[in-house]
Amino acid sequence: MSTWEAFAPFNSLHLFTVAVCALLILLLAAAGRALRKSAAEVTLRRGWAILALGYWFAYVIWWNWNGLDLYGGLPLHLCDFNGLIAPIALLTMNRWARSTLYFWTFTLTLQAFIQPMLSKGPAHLEFWAFWIGHTIIMASAVYDVAVLRFRPDWSDVGRAVAASFAYVAMVMPIDLAIGANYGFIGNPPPDKSLPPFIDAMGPWPRRAFIVMGLGIIGFVLTLLPWRFAGRRAPRPPTTVL
């Protein structure tokens, strides 16, 4: 099957697509930095957030247009939630939303770029929908850091962990009730395949706990660069009286 029809991770199409997505993310951040501390930046940010909200609703409607897909079409994956948190964070500047956006994006949504769960190529709308959706989330998180200067600390890790446990508490009962695997923490029936990196974590429920544990470790790892940067920042000179 041609590359135009099918998508496979780690091939030239994958690398090229990630490069294009990265360029678009950087362009948005550069535009925001050029307009920082001006009314134009607020307009840009609000416009981006409205675009993100519009895309989120359009995607959910399109995916279920021919009938509700309980197994994969409900907006219950973590990136579905993050797709709503992203515009809320940019519009409200709420610390909980910004903390969750930062850690969920740079730990979990990032995995969509590294090991995408996608099989269809550019000939299919699903390919474009996947990359646009995840790029919007990543661009929002990068914008918050590069333009709005969000700087996470340990309290933000706590907020992200609390949001994650709330997500698990809501989604896992649904997974078990309908045999789905939203958030990759469910126990789907044998006829439903698991992503290779999830399957490698062993049987359920062990793999669910491993996924959650790795997520928390990822949160800490994405905080460490800021902690090291803070320690190396030059201190203001001491005034000698």
Q: What does this protein structure show overall?
A:
- The chain is mainly α.
- Helix 4 packs across helix 5 (125-146) and helix 4 (95-114) packs across helix 6.
- The protein contains 8 helices and no strands.
- The chain has one domain.
Count of discrete structural domains: 1
Count the strands?
A: 0
Beta fraction of the residues?
Answer: under 5%
Which structural class should the secondary elements be placed in? mainly alpha
> What is the N-to-C order of secondary-structure elements (H for helix, E for strand)?
HHHHHHHH
Termini separation comes to 77 Å
Catalogue the unreliable spans: 236-241
**DSSP helix fraction:** 55-70%
Shape: globular
Report on the biggest sheet: none
The average pLDDT value, as a whole number, equals 93
Tally of separate helices:
8
Task: Write down the Rg.
Answer: 19 Å
Concise synopsis of the structure shown:
The chain is built from eight helices and no strands. The chain has 241 residues and is mostly helical. Helix 3 (78-92) crosses helix 5 (125-146), helix 4 (95-114) crosses helix 8 and helix 6 (154-178) packs antiparallel against helix 8 (206-232).
List keywords for this structure.
single chain, 241 residues, mainly alpha, disordered C terminus
What's the SSE blueprint?
Blueprint: H1 12-34, H2 39-63, H3 78-92, H4 95-114, H5 125-146, H6 154-178, H7 196-199, H8 206-232
